[in-house]
Amino acid sequence: MESGQLKIEWARQYMPVLSAISERFKKEKPFAGKVIGMALHVEAKTANLVKTLVDGGATVHITGCNPLSTQDDVAKALDKVPGVYCYASRGCSVDEYYKAIDTVLDAKPVITIDDGMDLIHRLHTARQDILPGVIGGCEETTTGIHRLRAMASEGKLKFPVIAVNDTPMKHFFDNVHGTGESALTAIMATTNSLIAGKWIVVAGFGYCGRGLARKAAALGAKVIVTEIDPRYALEAYMDGFHVMSMKEAAPVGDIFITTTGNRDVITGEHMACMKSGAILSNAGHFNIEIDGTWLTAHARSVEERDGIQSYWIGDKVIHLLAEGRLVNLAVPKGMGHPIEVMDLSFAIQALSAEYIALHHSGLKPAVHDVPDEIDRAVASLKLSSLGISIDVLSKDQKEYMESWDHGT
């Protein structure tokens, strides 16, 4: 068996929720006759989501959502699955990246699944010819949801999109545990650097930032959190972390991890006052959180290692991981989120896509929450796979919780 197929099979054995959904999809075929277009990180867990959709009767055309996150052996194996057409390749140029997205759209998908909204953006700009046939989509990540809500607020979103990122099962597990563990794992594997005793600067204290900060602290790090929201900053402080501006944190930090999904989080002003040997990484989204162009412009020389670019500026060196792209996926040793976490996130994706297929006619062009019953169903399936049972409200308890006139 080839390496890509081995990776897919390895992941499958730790994805019981998605496997249970696949078995139902095989019987019910909710996507029969439908084409699904996808732009996601093409690796083993994603491959199992694709195969689940195919089990449901779909034909899937997929490409990557990040030029450095594709695992070529997995893409090759996925392209051999009947009903799947994969166009992703690692290290593609910007032109090749958008050509692959156009190739996905050439298949005239009726449902889209995105990570970062590049597919939907292309549909609404350069490929509006495809728009009339699209019944809805799903978006995986925070950055994509921000972009979609901005589009919807301007009245420019032309079909309903399910905000998979914004549901509790995504926030509490994918963002906190998935990003928290995988980003630190990738940093440690790439740099062989000790976390304990280091000053770790986490930019942003949303769900991803919280996960990173808490897990870094558990490894013995001294954690600094930078924030723009006073409420999140106060929460970080109450959780025991140091809170300061990035300008204050810059000369202190040993390892920097951005998690904001915004641009210019670490700029030249910050890098100019960092200590020699500082390590910079991004766990947010696009490679604009850290100003790599400033590093290139001011470096007298650059050294390349596996997943590390070392910029010599004067008599100090600053190390940038994964060219500023997602560190947990884009470094050579990056494996993305743990399998068990993505089992939950991709189960929500699969069920949200099914919801679009079944209920699109009643949904307005807007960003929609994941239906609560889907979120609860995924949690219940996971608990069942773990052999865990929980309590159920009695009739009297339910009545009490729903009533307004029961006092002491």
From TrEMBL:
User: What's this protein's name?
Assistant: Adenosylhomocysteinase
Q: What is its EC number?
A: 3.13.2.1
Q: Which organism is it from?
A: Methanospirillum stamsii
**A GO molecular function held by the record:** adenosylhomocysteinase activity
Annotated NAD(+) binding lies at 141-143, 206-211, 227, 283-285, 328, 337
Cofactor, how bound (note): Binds 1 NAD(+) per subunit.
Q: Which family does it belong to?
A: Belongs to the adenosylhomocysteinase family.
Can you supply a Gene Ontology BP term from the record?
Answer: S-adenosylmethionine cycle
| Cofactor(s) needed for function | NAD(+)
* Gene Ontology CC, one term: cytosol
